[in-house]
Amino acid sequence: MTTPGTTLVIGATGTTGSRVVSQLAAGGHRVKAAGRRAGPVSGARAVRFDWADPTTFGEALSGTDRVYLVPPIGSSEPAGVMLPFLDQARTAGVRRAVLLSSSAIPAGGPATGRIHEALPGLFDEWAVLRPSWFMQNFTGDHPHARSIRADGTVSTATGEGRVGFVDADDIAAVAVHALTDDRAPNTDLVITGPQALSYGDIAAAVTEVTGRAVTHRRLTYAQMRDHLAAAMPAEFAAMLAGLDRSIAEGSEDRTTDTVHRLTGRPPGTFRAFAERELTVTAPRRPRRGPSGGP
């Protein structure tokens, strides 16, 4: 591996960003941990960064040659702010960019799909991470975690559709390789866990591990859209409900070898994740930002 100058990690207190910072620092790499509050981050230099405030871009980019890009949370059209930032990053000397996108969004698609499409024209060294749904969506403040705690249900419009749920630790490990390997991937990387599981399978696994009965509550697309719209903009809720509908049609029923191929170890299973994160006696990783994943 090369020894890069400094990597800017945007969203450094979030689900993947915090893990990327930790793994980079553990590997001896210099890191700028970017967040809206610039709070202390172990092993990194904290710097204030806010997608909504372009005046924070210059200081964050100063002295960096690589950047891990986490899009603004909840935005269905992030290109408006991200593309000008990436132009500024290239001018400032950033030569490698790694974007966190989604397995459900191809190049040229909605939201991060526009950034994905533009990235190869902006940087000679790049990668787009396209993880499947996060296992961490069943912990912390994610709606699935809250509903499991409140009434023992997980509500989706996915039917019997299956998903290659992936541990954020594995996503971060792939990100670190994409940021630090001698040769950039210069491609998109679909990242999954080792098994494709339905939400019914997830509910059964959580029940078995925690001893608390959890069931999958099946909703229609319209019911899911309206359920989500109570807590987020209607357009974003419709997009998320549409992703559920795609899962029901089989869009995420796959697994890939990306984690093993890039890191040399197999991805973690949902059962191992649940035993680590969901049992009463297991220590839980503090939630330092909104949970990620589609």
The coarse overall form would be: globular
How far from one another are the termini?
31 Å
The chain-level mean pLDDT equals 92
**Helix/strand-derived class?**
alpha/beta
- The radius of gyration is 18 Å
Give the SSE string.
EHEEHEHEHEHEEHEEHEHHHH
Low-confidence stretches: 280-292
| Total of DSSP H or I helical runs spanning 4+ residues | 11
Largest sheet: 7 strands, parallel
Helix content: 25-40%
- Secondary structure: number of strands: 11
Please give the order of strands in the largest beta sheet: 3-2-1-4-5-6-9
Give the DSSP E fraction (strand runs of 2 or more residues). 15-25%
Question: Please, could you describe this protein's structure?
Answer:
It is a single chain. 38% of the residues lie in helices and 15% in strands. It is an alpha/beta fold. It has helices at 17-26, 57-61, 79-92, 112-122, 143-151, 168-180, 199-210, 221-229, 234-248, 258-263, 270-277, and strands spanning 7-10, 31-35, 45-48, 66-69, 96-100, 125-131, 153-156, 162-163, 188-191, 197-198, 215-218. The protein has 11 helices and 11 strands. α8 (221-229) packs antiparallel against α9 (234-248). It has a 7-stranded parallel β-sheet, sandwiched between helices.
